[in-house]
Amino acid sequence: MQPVSKRARQFSIDYLLANQQGNGNENSDRYVERIGNSLWHNAKFNIVKTYSKFLIKDVPNDPESLLSGIFNYCVDDAIERSREKGIEPDQLACTLNSDFLDYDIWVPFSDITNNTVDAMLNRCQHIAQSKKQDETTLWGSPFKITITTINRKGLPKRRIVGGAARKPAKIRHQINHASLIKFANPDNRNHCLFFSLIAAFVQNICNWPGWKFFDYINSRYGMAGRFVKDTHELINLIGAPMNLNEYDAEEWIPTIVDHWNNIICVNQCRVKVFVFGEEGNYKPKFKYGPSDYDTPIIIYHNNNHFYAVKKSGNLFGKLYCLSCESVYTRAQHHSITCIARCKNCSRVGPTYPCKSSNTFFKYCNTCYKNFHNNDCYRHHLLVGFCNRSKKCNVCGVIWNVSANTRNGREGHICSEKFCNTCGDFHEPKRGCFIKPLDPKERDSYRIIAFDLETMQQTTVHEPNFISAKISCPDCIINGKWQQSLHTNNCNICGQHRTITFSQQPFNNTIVDKKIVNESPLAAFVDWLINGLPQNCDSIVFSHFGGRFDMVITLKEIVKNGIKPEMLKKGNKMFEMKMKINKYNIIFRDTFNIMPMPLASLVSAFDLEVEDKPFFPHMANRPENYGKAIFPTKEDYLAQGMMPEKRKHFDQWYEQQRNVPFFLDEALASYCTNDVEILMSALISFRKEFMNVTKRGACERASSTKAHDGIDVLRESMTIASACMRHFRTNHLKEDHLALVPERGYDTLNGNQSLLALKFFNWYAEKFNVEIRNVHSEEGEKSVGNYQLDGWVEEEQYGIEVNGCVWHGCPVCFPNENTIMPSGKTAGYLREHDKKRYNL
Asked: Which intervals hold domain DNA-directed DNA polymerase family B mitochondria/virus (predicted)?
């Protein structure tokens, strides 16, 4: 596409909007104001971003008609700014952001054509029309348009190799540094890989007392120099150069492990090395060794240094299974399907399950298991596993006593299995039902409502006033939630009922505690973490916080080194949770349970609080501190108001226009009033919901127990989830509402590839036989615990069709450690298939 000359047309917003409106004489300032503009340039990657913030003033009946001119202006401006930076753009991306959008509207990178603006305009008009149905508009507040231009020819080239499924996001866990064998490189060279391997190997093989191993690592007394000598001998034996700047674990560990297993430890032990990384992932970064190993060597890699991990393990502060690559609390509670766990005695590790002995047999009359190992039998009695796990004499299933005797269940039933979908035991063919809920026990918790006001001098939202109010269920019940805590002490609420964080002091608004700080947000987050009693959970509410207050607070929380868990959809955050000591601080958006503007809550719940006043947000600037000002209508964003609200505002403004406005005092009055409205609405809604949902004895569909109602603030984050909890608690009967399978009821009891089905069709036609498969009336043929892909009854033989990816083809995937799309290694899949074939 040939770029249009800058001189060929006018690029002013006035010109574009005049053409858009069809009336060149009408002043465009009546409709559009650009209230922000900035530029970001990355010279390395030839990228230019322009940020433009607009406000549509005096919102007309069809404000979307203005957008084409705005987009054209932004695109042309971005192209011109790119050329000023010496970049001739060939592709462009566009994003529109508004507080009223759950998702940003965006057009991905594409070649610059005349259709770019049309694509963005069509997307905006589609969203705007859906908003109109809710009697709202996107254009009642400022919105931001970001244009990104790029010259792709200047980007660095790279190879992109595909073929595998998307990898899940890595999960990071805390490392227990007390489990590490720490040492500086004793020879002052970059040999930490070999020192860590020798240290872990010696501790696992030699079984020395702790003092002797300490002397060995620290080269003390009779052990002086042995650590360095053993390490250098290993380096020489495997032929590694002595003076490299760094050593690759994946290159040298296989050679060392093979040397140990084939020369040093023959008929003594089988070694396998596991390397974990600084990210704290449960899965190792690298592992090498035989599958029948009995001596694990664990190495930790952090900041380009290798550490040996102590024999006792606990790298993650918990017991860890190298087979499942996951942590567990107790061996008795570890997964029954783990191949490194003994089902008879519950012990976990590379030397388990316990090996059978031809000279020992014992039948336990308590748990009904057969034991072929004396140590296994004695251990299961010693730890009391006999009373926690039993074997069924009918079907042979080993079942957990605790899981099969809770919630009125009286033990194992042969035909039933535990279902992870519905959380209950039932026959697999029966399907699942949605379970009725029991009311939760009323634990103490703290309710915090907060609001923040941000300054307008920059494009970054920076709070300069935060107000919070605290309450709890006990204070609500006894009617003290509106009283100051100076005279009414509460162990849950703490010392203050109301608290503010501000840059400037104020006098006319009464609160329990005033904190004046250059950074109110930092002080607020510090108060949440350190200033509240550490005796219960805190639920922190803000109205429309999922798109504003919570997002701004998140940044400060991360600065404190805390990574909260977030539940969000697109740009909308539903919940943010962080654990402080033993208790949680949970942020939620009250708009999700009371979906209406904050001002409407007063009339909706008939609250006895002051109505939400008008506030000149655009006048919230530091230069207005400590002096009387007279805000204009533009400061109140009057141009973005809907006609009815604008009429009411104009009447109010005429009465107040000559009244001096003091920002310091107005911030305190406005923000604390918002919090008062929010807290009053929360308590009113909680009380009303509990009255609606409480039930007496025998008034519930699935239980005769009475309850006092559902605490919607504690148990639900959206009005939809609250209503569903009410339905499942009070109205849903047992085994009444089925869970429809993901693929419907008319699906097959099994999963078979299209390749296998096509092969069976060809085979049946070629050899004139009938093949039983997943589509047959009887389903797949079962052999033990396995199903055959195909079965020819007349000739009594089975057919297996193994796809390369899902079965770890040794030709396509020769490396046993290759992770397949199923999450399992190629070696594991081949071993699993081998067991099937042997059966």
From this structure: 539-746
